[in-house]
Amino acid sequence: MAGPSKVEFPGQKKQRLRLRGTKRASQNVQQRLRKNLDMLVATPEVALPEMRWDGHLPWGRTDPVTKTLREIAKVLDKRHYISWLNKRMMSKRGDAVAKAWAGALAAAHEDGISLVGTFNHPIYGNSSFVRKGDAKPIIAVGVQNHRNVRLRLLTWESHARKGWFFFSWSGGFVCTGNSAKIPDGWLGEVVTNLDAKVEKSDDGYVIGNIDDGCVILEYIDGTKVRFGADALAAKRKSSLIAELALPMLPPKLTEIATGGFSWRPEGWPKGRELPQQAVDGVEKVIIAWMELGVLEADLWGSLQKVLTSNLNEGIAICESWFANDDIDSAIKLLSGSDIEREAAAIGISLMVEGEVGATIGEIGEFEEREDELIWCLADTSHHLLSALWEDYGEEILLQLGIAAGEAEKDWRQQLERKTPFGKFLRGLESKRAAVSLLQLFPWGEDELDGICGQAHGLVLLAQGQGAGRAHAKATKMRGDIATQALGWAWLSAHGKESGQEWHFEQDARDRGSGWSLAIGELWEVGCSLVDGGDGATMDDYVAAMKSLASACGERGDLPTPSNLS
Hints:
single chain; 4 domains; alpha+beta
């Protein structure tokens, strides 16, 4: 059924219709296509690949590339017969490439080029062509843009899908058959035309700075192309690997080259082979890059990570590796305070002793591994401790010198509140110092009773928090005469009794004056234990405590010292 008629009004501007995928050709596009089309008529051989395949198919069969070339030859024989070309370019049968040639030759006989088709390809980019006939756009683009060494490959895409290889460069256009063979001159031109500074080497080419390692492509002819990390990371319109791959079709670099990664983590022993798992992981990433499946800017980092993550043993901090007995060097790479690094070192030591492997993420994620590698992607002690805290936090606190009961309490508190570890650990310094102090004396804080226990408490208070705190506590000692007497004895032993008489009863002062000598001896031995001077030992402190017990009349034996070896 005919559509509704269009009504035009006087003075109305006429509308121009344009097919989807077409545009008005600019002067440059017209000139370029005109030159290309004229060359197809005058010298068509420049657009055709040279067949260099010396293989054979079963008797009676001809390879598909040769078949297409024969069909194109038939079209070329009729290149000046426009009516024949018009019929061939619309044929539903016959070779598809020959059909595109017929359309291009028919377009070459037309006077002007005004409206052109647009071709957009994610890899090969954008181009224009004359829409003439029923050929597929991708084939028509390749035929009509045959002076472009990459686009002319598109003509043969269907053949490439079936396993036939084509190489194109300014010096030639070759089909090497169903196996990829690098033509003379092709590789040198492709590499030197890269959008990068290329330097010649004894066995190939160098691109970028390779002092710290390189990615290597070794071609089947022995040529090696080395890429530095800086060259791979540089911004450019097209990746280097795409520039190397696109002048061949199909763009399978894996058919003509193998990849390698000449880099080892800092600290990895020279001459030591990598685990096979690491080698395999690197190979997979490089193959994916060669197949245009990995962003080039991410390649170096991806290779470093896959190699480091597959070392199977030792300690890896980011991209540096350390043996299990070099934990202190590994911890130096982590930012944080001294006590944070100390705690982190204890955590890693516990994992090494337990033969536990784990991957620790950049923000403290913990994932246990099947091997014994400890791989830390985080660069801060805080994130490392965050990852280890649930499993190792309590033991870390114990080894830092926190008492058992306090360690469990503080571990649970940090597990729930998640305070920054620097602040949290600094807050435990006083507890840590108190535990360290107690370890210097024969008894703990609450192991002695009576006057001896109170005297021991004053010694610990004075050593831990200062003599002034102990003097103040002694001044306020109340209760029975014996307790007051101890307070007076402490003040007298330190020469602080003057002016404090009104705090103590006379009987307490009299009794305490007799104890002051024993208290003074106990204090001096305690100071020697803490300062490490005079060669005093725990046995000396026990002896001084026995003298005090005798002076104050306490009966019974003192408890067995818990810290005395």
